[in-house]
Each structure stands twice: as structure tokens, then as C-alpha cells.
């Protein structure tokens, strides 16, 4: 009998001895912000229940501190008192309606705590935090170990199947285990046996408190990616000690938060770090979990089939699609709403102390608030514009039972996404368009491409509602010579593929300016060449150096001289995404792109771009000037029909033109679809 399971390794059970996981999929820990919201645990219960219903094998919650000093922020979540237990029961009861197991992550942030009561191995301030920690005394170390054990017992009483002890990403236990942050001279510092003592003693204390039949995951940093990180021999030594102390599973941690190496952004190759988990396979006998940028079932299956790990962790892919596992099991991978690694609605939100959600799935963390119930009164709706806003509205509205007709003048769906997907490092955008295309088919949206609409065509068809998602037009700045033959718009480059010279000035250093610069300098996308990417970011796959770091490859060859310019005097790219902006800036820096702020544009002529900088007039002799100076809403057709009394709605860039904000566009389309 042949095995017809589409992903036999991924979907096979994992026997832990005292319990069995239904498959090899671990939903990794994500802080959502709901942990701190009023009534947030009821919303968290709905969030985790949706993923359990989707058949994920094991869920790990967002980080919860075992004591006050370990909290992420002053009002951060903590599990240390008996009265904390009941609110967690709402989560475990919801998840246990299904075969899924759930573990509580115990996270002591150490010097990453954003409050003045932070503690660490030594009193060394983190470069990403204004608060300097106090060094833990011997007595406080022992009380911290007891706090972890006590929280684990409370988690067990709350119905959790286990805990994950966070020992990586530069948090407290990792701060003890590495020389970078541990300068102690007592038995908790010095040798690896001393530095790893905190993590080992925590596992021992937790195991003693909860007994044998309780999952203990230890998240071990296999790649610190910082100076003063651990050597490979030290990591293996710690892994073996953690196993001996009573861990059930070891989960892979990749990089400290202060590391200057991207680990989960769009531009990181898929499964870029599973090689390091494979390196640990065979050194310990407990199951190992590979993680980071595993976002589709074929990628996960390959990781397992090639022996890189025993399980795979996917965190944000379950923000993007709670039914990931069920769709994979049904052989419907094309129906998966793929995580594109953008960070815009998840990590960026969390670091701005807002609720996390997902750019491609605005329902994530809003399961009780943004719903798409069948409508009792189906309407005949026309949608004009098949960019992200129009696609989202069309799919959700049709899902509710409305009859939706979608028009676009272009020959393919996607709008501005079709230009973004060409930028090296943004190949994942293809997946979003593939998903939307399937959703249009599944929900019977009547799609008309190459179909421009006007007032007469829309009025004569008798639609109940008109939804305009007509996007934006590039803004043309008022610069003398702006119509010179040297001048190109970003659409000329990314859409029409007009030839671009060797020396280029880019006017405007927002997201589009950075995209165009990247498009022009990256001859080959590093995202699709894992070894080149690892080398470019200085990652030592041979592990010859502590922290697995090598000098960054600054010699990235290209044949253009590029100037990225902006009027603002602030740092170029200062308004890019909070967690990814530094990656884009470093990428262009490594490609020797010249970044010039504080520019006043005077003229474009045969010589090139005439500008002034700090009062001094300059001439930049360039072959082309590429304009990326913002957008203007394309809302004229909406205004005409609204003035004629039609039932009109305006969404996406046509409503607010703001740096091609797909996050806002998709959410706005979804919210309108939920209420129309």
C-alpha cells in the first residue's frame, strides 16, 4: 500500500514517551500584545483555538515572565501567583477541544526588560535598551530558579501540557551563558560549565516541580550571531547538560535581538538556518526543532526529510494562516496564505506596543472582532482595482455571500505588488498574489482584467455598491527640468523596464526609493542563493569563530554608481520599518550606495541633477534621475460617481496614498467587507 500523505515526515506523529504529538509542527512563540490588553486572554483563547482547530501539533505561547523583574515591560504579563491561573485556563480549555498540545513560554528578559528594575548576569547595558541592569546576586539567582519552577507548576495547574524555557535570543539565560554579557568571577561565570549553570539548574528545578509527564522545551541559542557569543563546543556541552537536566525537546534559537544579522525578514532565504540544527543532530537524544523562515509545507518537509531536525517551528506562518496544517494535509498548499516575512504588522507592532496582527491576514489576533459571517442580504458589488485593497475586499465580501465583480485595467491582478515582487529580497510577494488568485477562484469572484471602467459603464450595470480600490499615481515633484529625457519614474523602472544608466540619482528615500536602489544594485537576489546570503551577512557555517560570525562581505559587486537622496535632514531611511529598516540601510551600504540627506533640488538638465546641500550648489553628473517622491490618490472616478449619488466606497491607496501601505490597504478592504 503506497503512502499518499502529501508531506509524510511533516505529518507523522512524534512520540515523546509519556505523550504523542499528532505531527511535527510546532507553532513558535509570538508575543501578540493581547497578553496585556483588558480582556486580552479571552481574545488569546480565540486566537490559539483557531490554530488548534487547524491541527498544529504543538503551540508555544507568547513569553510570560516568572517574576516581576523579568517582565518585558512594567505592565508585562507574569505567571507567579495562584490568581494568575484562571485566565490561562481559558486558553488551555479552548486549545484542548482539539488534539493539539500547548506549552507556556517562560521568558525572563534580563537586560532586555524595558523598565528600570532589569537584572542580568553582569551590569552591562544592552545597545537596544536605555535601562542598565543590575547584576543578580547569588541569592537572587537562586530565587529566580525557584520562580521558574513555581511558574511551571502554575502552568501545569492552568492546564498547559508543558513549558518552553526561553534560553536564547539574548534574554536572561542566554546572557548568563555567553561571555559577551557574563563577566562574573563566581560559580555562575567563567567556564561554560559555570555560565550554563543557570539554564541547567532551571531545567532541573522545573522537572522536579512538575514531574515526569510534562513537556519541557528548552530554547537553546545555537547561533548567537554576536561578538562574545558561544563556540560550537560550548553549545554542544550546554545541550547535553540541558538534556541530562530533564528537557523533553530542544528548540533552536537564532541570533540575539541586538545582532546585526537579519534572521526572520523577507530577504532571509527560506530555511536559512536549519543547517545549524542538523549540526546538533546526534549530539543529544531528545527531539530537536529547526526554526526561522520555514513558511511552506514543502520547505518544512524537506528540512525533516533531509535530517536537519525532528520538528519544525513556524511562528508567523500561523499568523498568516491558522489552517496551514489542515491545508497541507489535504494537499492544498496553494490555498495557504503564506507569511511573507514583512514584519510590518507583527514585530513592528509589538515593538511599538501595539497589538500584533498580520499584513496578509488582518483577522490574526482579531478573531473575535473581525468576522466574516454570511450576509442575510447578498448584494451585487463592483470592485474597481485589483491591488491589495481590492483583492482583500473582493475575497472577503464574496466569502460572505455577496456577488462580486472585480475590474482592473491591467492584465494581471496585484497592482503595486507586481512591481514590489521584482525587488530582490521581496520574492515572497509572489506567494500573496498566488493566494489571492486562488481565493478569487474559490469564492467565484467574476474577474475582468484589461478592463477599464468609466462613469457610464459602472452606472448602467445596476450595482448595489461600488468599491473603488484604484490605487495611486506617482507624485511628480515641482523641479525645473522634471520632464527631461534623463528622468524616469519608479514605474518606468519596475513596470516598464526602461533601460537605466550606470550613474543614477534617486529622488526620494522612502520605501520605494530603497526598493529601486536594491533592484538596481543586486545583480542576483541573495534571497534565492543561501550560501551567498550567509557569506554576505558574515555567518560562519564552519563555526570556526565564537557566535559564528565572520567579517561581513562588503565587496558586493555591481556596475552602477547610485545616489539615494532626500530633502529631509534626518538619517536616510529613518522612517522605514522599525525591525527591518536597518536591514535595508545596511544592504545598500554594503553595496556602496551613496545616501545623501538634506538636499534641495534645483534643476535637472543635460549635465544631470543640480542641487544644493548646506547652501553649496552642486552638480551630480548622472545618466538618469529616478523619481520616487511619493504618491497621490487616484480617486477621480470615485468622486464623479459619488457626486452622482451612487453608493461608493474608497479603500487602499485611493483613499490614503502613503508609501504603498499594503498593511493598511488589506485591513481596510477586510473591514469594509465585514460590514457591507
Automatic annotation (TrEMBL):
Q: Tell me the ranges covered by the NADH:flavin oxidoreductase/NADH oxidase N-terminal domain, including all copies.
A: 10-334
Q: Which UniProt keywords apply?
A: Flavoprotein, FMN, Iron, Iron-sulfur, Metal-binding, Oxidoreductase
Would you kindly state one Gene Ontology biological process term found in this protein's UniProt entry? fatty acid beta-oxidation, unsaturated, even number, reductase/isomerase pathway
Question: Which residues are in the FAD/NAD(P)-binding domain?
Answer: 380-643
Fetch the CDD domains from UniProt: DCR_FMN (cd02930)
GO MF annotation, one: 2,4-dienoyl-CoA reductase (NADPH) activity
The cofactor required is: [4Fe-4S] cluster; FMN
InterPro entries according to UniProt: Aldolase_TIM (IPR013785), FAD/NAD-bd_sf (IPR036188), FAD/NAD-binding_dom (IPR023753), NADH:flavin_oxidoreductase (IPR051793), OxRdtase_FMN_N (IPR001155)
The family note in this entry says: In the N-terminal section; belongs to the NADH:flavin oxidoreductase/NADH oxidase family.
Q: What is this protein called?
A: NADPH-dependent 2,4-dienoyl-CoA reductase
Amino acid at each position: 500500500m503506497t503512502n499518499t500523505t502529501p508531506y509524510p515526515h511533516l505529518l507523522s506523529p512524534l512520540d515523546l514517551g509519556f505523550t504523542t504529538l499528532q505531527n511535527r509542527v510546532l507553532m513558535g512563540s509570538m508575543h501578540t500584545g493581547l497578553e496585556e490588553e483588558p480582556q486580552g486572554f479571552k481574545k488569546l483563547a480565540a486566537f490559539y483555538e483557531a490554530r488548534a482547530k487547524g491541527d498544529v501539533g504543538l503551540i508555544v505561547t507568547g513569553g510570560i515572565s516568572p517574576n516581576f523583574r523579568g517582565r518585558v515591560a512594567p505592565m508585562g504579563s507574569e505567571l507567579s501567583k495562584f490568581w494568575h491561573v484562571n485566565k490561562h485556563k481559558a486558553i488551555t480549555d479552548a486549545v484542548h477541544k482539539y488534539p493539539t498540545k500547548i506549552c507556556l513560554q517562560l521568558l525572563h528578559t534580563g537586560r532586555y526588560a524595558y523598565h528600570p528594575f532589569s537584572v542580568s548576569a553582569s551590569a552591562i547595558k544592552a545597545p537596544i535598551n536605555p535601562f542598565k541592569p543590575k547584576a543578580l546576586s547569588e541569592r537572587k539567582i537562586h530565587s529566580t530558579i525557584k520562580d521558574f519552577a513555581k511558574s511551571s507548576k502554575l502552568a501545569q495547574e492552568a492546564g498547559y501540557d508543558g513549558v518552553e524555557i526561553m534560553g536564547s535570543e539574548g534574554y536572561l539565560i542566554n546572557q548568563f551563558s555567553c561571555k559577551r554579557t557574563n563577566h562574573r568571577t563566581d560559580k555562575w561565570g567563567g567556564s561554560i560549565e559555570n555560565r550554563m549553570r543557570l539554564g541547567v539548574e532551571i531545567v532541573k528545578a522545573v522537572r522536579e516541580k512538575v514531574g515526569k509527564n510534562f513537556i519541557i522545551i528548552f530554547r537553546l541559542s545555537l547561533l548567537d550571531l554576536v561578538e562574545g557569543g558561544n563556540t560550537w563546543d560550548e553549545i554542544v556541552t550546554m545541550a547535553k547538560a540541558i538534556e541530562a537536566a530533564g528537557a523533553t525537546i530542544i528548540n533552536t534559537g537564532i541570533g540575539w535581538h541586538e545582532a546585526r544579522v537579519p534572521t526572520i525578514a523577507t530577504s532571509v532565504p527560506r530555511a536559512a538556518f536549519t543547517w545549524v540544527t542538523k549540526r546538533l543532530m546526534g549530539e543529544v537524544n531528545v527531539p530537536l526543532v529547526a526554526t526561522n523562515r520555514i513558511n511552506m509545507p514543502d520547505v518544512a518537509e524537506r528540512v525533516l526529510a533531509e535530517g536537519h531536525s525532528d520538528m519544525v517551528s513556524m511562528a508567523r506562518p500561523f499568523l498568516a494562516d491558522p489552517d496551514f496544517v489542515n491545508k497541507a494535509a489535504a494537499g492544498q498548499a496553494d490555498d495557504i496564505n503564506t507569511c511573507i516575512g514583512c514584519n510590518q504588522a507583527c514585530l513592528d507592532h509589538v515593538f511599538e506596543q501595539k497589538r500584533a496582527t498580520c499584513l496578509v491576514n488582518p483577522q490574526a489576533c482579531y478573531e473575535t472582532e473581525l468576522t466574516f459571517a454570511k450576509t442575510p442580504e447578498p448584494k451585487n458589488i463592483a470592485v474597481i482595482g485589483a491591488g491589495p485593497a481590492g483583492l482583500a475586499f473582493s475575497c472577503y465580501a464574496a466569502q460572505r455571500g455577496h456577488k462580486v465583480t472585480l475590474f482592473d485595467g491591467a492584465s494581471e491582478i496585484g497592482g503595486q505588488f507586481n512591481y514590489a515582487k521584482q525587488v530582490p529580497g521581496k520574492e515572497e510577494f509572489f506567494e500573496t498574489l498566488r493566494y489571492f488568485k486562488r481565493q478569487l477562484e474559490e469564492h467565484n469572484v467574476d474577474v475582468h482584467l484589461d478592463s477599464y471602467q468609466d462613469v457610464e459603464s459602472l452606472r448602467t450595470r445596476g450595482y448595489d455598491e461600488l468599491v473603488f480600490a484604484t490605487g495611486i499615481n506617482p507624485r511628480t515633484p515641482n523641479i525645473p527640468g522634471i520632464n527631461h529625457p534623463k528622468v524616469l519614474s519608479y514605474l518606468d523602472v519596475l513596470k516598464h523596464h526602461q533601460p537605466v544608466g550606470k550613474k543614477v540619482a534617486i529622488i526620494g528615500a522612502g520605501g520605494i526609493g530603497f526598493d529601486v536602489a536594491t533592484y538596481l544594485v543586486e545583480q542576483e537576489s541573495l534571497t534565492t542563493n543561501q550560501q551567498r546570503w550567509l557569506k554576505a551577512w558574515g555567518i560562519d557555517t564552519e563555526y570556526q569563530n565564537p557566535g559564528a560570525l565572520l567579517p561581513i562581505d562588503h565587496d558586493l559587486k555591481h556596475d552602477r554608481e547610485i545616489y539615494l537622496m532626500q530633502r529631509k535632514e534626518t538619517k536616510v531611511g529613518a522612517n522605514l520599518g522599525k525591525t527591518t529598516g536597518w536591514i535595508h540601510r545596511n544592504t545598500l551600504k554594503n553595496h556602496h550606495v551613496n545616501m545623501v540627506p538634506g538636499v534641495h533640488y534645483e534643476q535637472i538638465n543635460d549635465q544631470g541633477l543640480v542641487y544644493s546641500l548646506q547652501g553649496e550648489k552642486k552638480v551630480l553628473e548622472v545618466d538618469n534621475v529616478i523619481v520616487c517622491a511619493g504618491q497621490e490618490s487616484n480617486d477621480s472616478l470615485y468622486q464623479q460617481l459619488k457626486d452622482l449619488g451612487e453608493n461608493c466606497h474608497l479603500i487602499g491607496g485611493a483613499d490614503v496614498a502613503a508609501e504603498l501601505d499594503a498593511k493598511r490597504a488589506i485591513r481596510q478592504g477586510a473591514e469594509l467587507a465585514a460590514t457591507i
